[in-house]
Amino acid sequence: EAGVTQFPSHSVIEKGQTVTLRCDPISGHDNLYWYRRVMGKEIKFLLHFVKESKQDESGMPNNRFLAERTGGTYSTLKVQPAELEDSGVYFCASSPRLAGAGNEQFFGPGTRLTVL
Amino acid sequence: GQQVMQIPQYQHVQEGEDFTTYCNSSTTLSNIQWYKQRPGGHPVFLIQLVKSGEVKKQKRLTFQFGEAKKNSSLHITATQTTDVGTYFCAGRGTGGFKTIFGAGTRLFVKA
After folding, report:
1. Fewest Cβ atoms closer than 10 Å to its Cβ: which of A37, A91, B7, B29?
2. Given this model, what pLDDT does residue A39 score?
3. What's the DSSP call for residue A6?
4. Per the CB < 8 Å rule, is A40 touching B33?
């Protein structure tokens, strides 16, 4: 069974540019999560989809971030315009049931975003 | 809001020594999970604790959940070089489904 995949693995952009990250969860997993980790700090929750609906987007930093999951399959996270503080590793995770109900989350390899 | 603090930030040990990382939540947790991230890798689920005072073991790893369900620990006995990586705790509060991760403890093991 294929795991969670993310694209691209690395992205280097200049401040003010736009970047779109993609996550393909494990097939059949209704729950999809986006996280961000800045070096040395916690894995910070951004948002949670259940199928195509946003269950919780309380972790989204501001309106420069837009996440979508059309059709309830893959998800995209767009940052527009990017700022220096957006740099970090963006992880996507999926689970077959609510992670909050105590089920493990399967993480993707992450996208390392560097904003110059 | 809910916060999960994890200490130490990093620890260097000699192979064969023991290692412990501690996790403390500002609020009562319904459950806590532990993940391991190898250098250059992504977090991988290790275990979940749900009950007050629960203790679980996986070979040389021992996981504990505090009686008040606000703290947890991971203890590794006789570390090996394969144990290197960052260990994260992740707790869910009782009032929602969001999982809050600690900052992680990075373990270095010297052969």
Report:
1. B7
2. 81
3. E
4. no
